[in-house]
Amino acid sequence: MRIEYDRDVCIGMFQCVAEWDAFEEDTDAGKAVLQDSEAVEDDLFAREVPEDAELDAKFAARACPVDAITVYDDDGEQLIP
């Protein structure tokens, strides 16, 4: 499973932080940070999700009020949102 996070879309509500500890608050920027991610393009970050964190990653994506987080299965099919 892979997760993508669009930092440009993020509005800093930090619901993702409450759902998965891979997200942290960047209060200076007013946006979340996806730890251990790589930049895919400007403000778009991605990382693999460990098997034991898949449910938390899905909850983080569902909790985002602006759909800045997308989850893909191992075949690249979009699961959330």
TrEMBL record:
InterPro entries, per the entry: Fe-S_cluster_ET
Pfam families assigned: Fer4_15
UniProt-recorded Gene Ontology molecular function terms: iron-sulfur cluster binding; metal ion binding
Keyword tags: Electron transport, Iron, Iron-sulfur, Metal-binding, Transport
Membrane-spanning residues: none
Cited PANTHER family: FERREDOXIN (PTHR36923:SF3)
Name this polypeptide is given: Ferredoxin
